[in-house]
Amino acid sequence: MSRKPTDSSGMPPRGIRLRQKHPLLHMVEADLPDMAARKALRLMATGRLGDHHQVTPIDILADYGEYQLEKVLDRVFENDQPVIIVTEGLTSYFSLETISEFWCRLAAAMAKRPGSVYLSESYYQPREPVLNTTLKILGSVLGAVTRSEVSFHFQTDEEARQHFLSCGFASATVHDPRSWYGTLPIPESRGEPMVRVIEAGC
């Protein structure tokens, strides 16, 4: 693992932990301009900002300009070596139609760097009517607070897999947290987990 751009909301410490565990990792954290500036200042204040841990502004919906997805990738990674791209706490704030446009562009950009991998979480639509209605209401409230459109995009693993393939990814694997119980230190759900990790490759 040598290069990993991540587009994340807020300032999670995962980037710092990954760099500590993998000192040769080239970490690039990408966020909206204001948040990217705050992250850069925080890393600079702790002496962690440098050639192997960078921060760059991005707007995943931009069709042109310096914050456009394609231009950011070309700017921070000057050659065609594969990258690992992670989005966390991002995709559920957009409708499926809107975020799919980003996924299609991302797949096309990754195809220029064969061997690249995209990782993201996806929260499923509950099958139980009462829970589904409750979460839709909570999603509407959260969307109003964040001025975004909180969405639950899929209901099944196969639906999610097929959708990512339709966006242009060469492969798509849906990881169920239950497969990692006892292996990773993650919470164990009493029922079927609502979250999945999507791994899409080019």
Report on the architecture of this protein.
The relative contact order is 0.13. The chain is 36% helix and 20% strand. Helix 1 (14-21) links the parallel strand 1 and strand 2 (26-31). It has a seven-stranded mixed sheet, sandwiched between helices. It has six helices and seven strands, in the order E-H-E-H-E-H-E-H-E-H-H-E-E. The protein has 202 residues and is α/β, with parallel strands linked by helices.
Keywords for this entry:
single chain, 202 residues, globular, 36% helix, alpha/beta, seven-stranded mixed β-sheet, 20% strand
Short synopsis of the structure:
The protein is α/β, with parallel strands linked by helices and about 200 residues long. Helices cover about 35% and strands about 20% of the residues. It has helices at about 15-20, 35-45, 70-75, 95-110, 130-145, 155-165; strands at about 5-10, 25-30, 55, 85-90, 115-125, 170-175, 195-200.
Topology record:
Elements: E1 3-8, H1 14-21, E2 26-31, H2 33-45, E3 53-57, H3 69-76, E4 84-88, H4 96-111, E5 117-123, H5 129-146, H6 157-166, E6 171-175, E7 195-201
Parallel strand pairs: 1-2, 1-4, 2-3, 4-5
Antiparallel strand pairs: 5-7, 6-7
Rg, rounded, reads 17 Å
User: What proportion of the residues form beta strands (DSSP E)?
Assistant: 15-25%
**Could you give the distance between the termini?**
16 Å
- What kind of sheet is the major sheet? 7 strands, mixed
The residue-averaged pLDDT reads 84
Structural class, by secondary structure, is: alpha/beta
Helix content: 25-40%
Number of helices: 6
Poorly predicted segments: 141-146
